[in-house]
Specification:
Elements (H helix, E strand, L loop, with lengths): L12 E2 L12 E2 L1 H8 L5 H8 L6 H10 L6 H14 L1 H11 L12 E4 L12 E5 L1 H7 L10 E6 L9 H12 L9 E6 L16 H6 L5 E5 L16 E5 L15
Parallel strand pairs: 3-4, 4-5, 5-6, 6-7, 7-8
Antiparallel strand pairs: 1-2
Helix pairs in contact: 1-2, 2-4, 4-5
Length: about 260
């Protein structure tokens, strides 16, 4: 029996609304279907279409590269992650040409949201949850905690160059939760009040436990005074290390030479 060309195949899109399409409806398939859905006003539809683009070879790769210009941040973020992970040399070069910062895995790959214990974890793979120490303990009680990919641990305690108890409370708690936070890929620890190029006087200490406890970590971002920052561990999976600090001259001497 010959194939019915009007029947949808894998990766095909069908024109229509929420109602089931009529039997005789035309199939908008292949790369044209992907391009059509990328014109949708609905961000989620564009992201879903983008995830299929690389199924169509070089032409699909060009579509994914074009999505770096999308008006929605979520779509641009999805495009950069797709190109970084599966775009090959051409995809990575496109990222460098568009914005070199996109070449690296950073917190831009996740939507950033304050953790609300009443709401709980609703998007563990797509959201970087912002927590203080008490909120971190509540987050770890959430059934979805094992799926969380990104955490932003903000410290508020004032220390003026001294490493605070709060810093080591975060480090120890995260290390103890290493068997629970098995999907953690990105971690920020640092001053919550300092932003951008503002100086932070909040002391940071030894981060060896973090690197030992999270071998799958890809992004580590620190913000604070690094006079006492130390690390005695090699990490084979870390792709991006960002240190925002007032004092960095001696940091290199206390980091593994293989970094």
């Amino acid at each position: 029996m010959p194939d019915n060309q009007n029947q949808p195949k894998e990766f095909d899109a069908i024109l229509g609304g929420q109602a089931p399409p009529p039997v005789e409806s035309a199939v908008l398939g292949g790369l044209q279907g992907v391009k059509y859905r990328l014109t949708s006003p609905i961000v989620e539809v564009r992201i879903a279409a983008l995830s299929e683009a690389l199924n169509y070879g070089e032409a699909g790769l060009d579509v994914a590269i074009d999505a770096l210009q999308d008006t929605a941040e979520q779509v641009r973020r999805s495009a950069s992650r797709l190109l970084r992970q599966n775009g090959g040399v051409k995809g990575k070069q496109a990222l460098l040409n568009h914005d070199p910062y996109l070449f690296f895995t950073t917190f831009q790959d996740w939507k950033i949201e304050n953790f609300d214990p009443d709401t709980g974890i609703t998007d563990p793979g797509g959201t970087a949850y912002v927590v203080n120490f008490e909120q971190l303990k509540l987050l770890l009680q959430d059934p979805q905690a094992s799926k969380v990919e990104a955490l932003i641990c903000q410290m508020w305690e004032r220390s003026y160059y001294e490493v605070t108890d709060e810093f080591y409370a975060f480090v120890d708690t995260l290390f103890d939760a290493r068997q629970q936070l098995t999907q953690l890929r990105a971690l920020f620890i640092g001053d919550a009040s300092a932003q951008g190029y503002m100086k932070s006087y909040l002391g940071l200490g030894d981060i060896s436990l973090i690197l030992n406890g999270y071998p799958n970590l890809e992004v580590l971002q620190l913000r604070g005074f690094c006079g006492d920052l130390q690390c005695s561990s090699y990490h084979g999976n870390l792709k991006t290390l960002i240190i925002e600090t007032l004092y960095i001259s001696a940091v290199g001497s206390r980091m593994p030479k293989s970094w």
